Amino acid sequence: MSTLTFTRSKVVGVECPDKKTFLAHGILDDYIYALELDVEAKLPDLEITNIQGRWKRFTTTECPKSIPKLQNAVGLRILEEEFGRKVHRVVGKEGCTHFANLLVECCDAIVQAATYGEWQELKEKGIAPGKEEYLEEKFKAIPGLQNSCMVYSRFARRGK
Amino acid sequence: MVLSYTRNKYATTTDLADGSLLVQAVLKDTFFAGTVEMKVSVPELEIASLTGKVERAFNSECQEAVPLLQKAVGLQIGTGILKAVNGLVGGSGGCPRLADLILECIDEVVLRFTLPSIGEKQSKNEQEQIEAYRELIRQHPRLIGSCIAFAKDSPLLKGLELEK
């Protein structure tokens, strides 16, 4: 019989208390680790303005010392180049790689909310523009979005 | 306040009867739903097969990215895999969502093989645990500097002599 030998779950929710602010709450829970993050980021460049974290389950006596290292992420801009790599260095290597993993997950969730959230709102009101038209506006507002994948690179080429 | 966006990502690893691993990673969020299923040979830790699907996406063209998964078949899980997966499946010519799910599967494989030694250490007393971590560092010195527990000034490494 085949047996389950490892599982990991990550859950992130994003709230928008105002048009410029995103609050992400994320949890990571696997066979070894359990941890939690609250991250605040603000437009226009999605700068991380606040971060708090908590351990639920860890492996060594040193792991709790990674909590203060989360503050290294304050001031980082989610939309800047090499954001993920910076997080893995200043939060991961200097603190904990699992917190870095969850932080990248929370920040990616914030980018998704910032990119598509408005379209969902407009759709609910029945006034959503066409997807390409909507994306053209988002390409201007979110640096790097138009070269982020094969579909958007194609849109951008079509637009030229 | 209601949520503007929600994401649920989970991955599972199953040890198969033939000794290989079957890893599944699933992402369901407000705007995207997709799955990647990876078979990994043991002990080579080579990606033997990959399948996946995009069930829901903002753009219908995202479906076209699924065949890109095949580019990662044959890669060996180890140093350089992150860059290889992002280069072959992610990036501006690929799909970062699917690349991310492959990387989630790879994390699972690493953690699945880490789990037994962690469980073993936790059954020991504090001093024995410290010695067990020192032994881990002796065997895998590149862990030094990988996190705060294995920082050069960490009490876990105090007095540790490494073979040159």
Describe this structure in words.
The complex is a heterodimer of chains A (160) and B (164). With 160 residues, chain A is α+β, with helices and mostly antiparallel strands. Chain A folds into two domains: 8-126, no CATH class; 129-160, no CATH class. In chain A, 38% of the residues lie in helices and 29% in strands. Chain A has helices at residues 83-93, 97-124, 131-141, 150-159, and strands at 3-18, 21-30, 34-42, 47-57. In chain A, strands 1-2-3-4 form a four-stranded antiparallel β-sheet, with helices on one face. The longest helix of chain A has 28 residues, at 97-124. Chain B is α+β, with helices and mostly antiparallel strands and 164 residues long. Chain B has two domains: 7-115, Enolase-like, domain 1 (2-Layer Sandwich), CATH 3.30.390; 124-157, no CATH class. Chain B is 30% helix and 24% strand. Chain B is built from three helices and four strands; from the N terminus they run ββββααα. Chain B has a four-stranded antiparallel β-sheet with strand order 1-2-3-4, with helices on one face. In chain B, strand 1 (5-15) and strand 2 form a beta hairpin. Chain B starts with a strand and ends in a 25-residue tail after the last helix. The model of chain B has no long low-confidence stretch (mean pLDDT 93). Chains A and B meet through strand 1, helix 2 and helix 4 of A and strand 1, strand 2, helix 2 and helix 3 of B. Strand 1 of chain A pairs antiparallel with strand 1 (5-15) of chain B.
